[in-house]
Amino acid sequence: MNEATHAHDDTAHPIDERVQALMDQRLEAARSLADAAHALSSARAAFEEAQREYGARFKEAEKAGWDRKELTGPLGLEEPAKAPRQRRAPKARTEPDRKHESTSGGDKQPSS
Questions:
Q1: Beta bridge partners of 7
Q2: In the chain, at which end, N or C, are there fewer CB atoms within 10 A of the end residue's CB?
Q3: What is the reported pLDDT for 101?
Q4: CA–CA separation, 31 vs 23, rounded Å?
Q5: Contact indicator for 62, 88 with CB cutoff of 8 Å
Q6: Residue 2 in 3-state DSSP?
């Protein structure tokens, strides 16, 4: 960039190559992390669905006459896990943020 006109030159700056290499590494790391996050999310969803399905089949077996102790004892099956809790978004704050209130003398309580 020409300092006088703030226009870009067609010539490369000596640091450009190093900066570009660092940016490429960061971009690749972010892409890799995003791919892993997506795979993890998919695996969690599949696992939760498998848990629900197993629990339903376990209940069906009990309704068909199997005793829980028979299923988990001699047959070696696991008791179904409790259904995974659904994650909720945090509640929005309803109280004003005290840091941003005025600290002028108008807020003070009179002392007796």
A1: 2
A2: C
A3: 52
A4: 12
A5: no
A6: strand
Give the DSSP H or E segment for 56: helix 16-63
Question: What is the rounded CA–CA span in Å between residue 29 and residue 32?
Answer: 5
pLDDT at 49: 95
**Cα(96)–Cα(16) distance, rounded to whole angstroms?**
47
16/8 Cα distance (integer angstroms): 13
- Structure confidence at residue 82 (pLDDT): 72
> For tokens 């006109």, what's the residue?
5
C-alpha–C-alpha distance, residues 78 and 14, integer Å: 64
Confidence of residue 77 (pLDDT cuts 50, 70, 90): very high
Environment class of 99 (CB within 10 Å of its CB; exposed 0-12, middle 13-18, buried 19+)? exposed
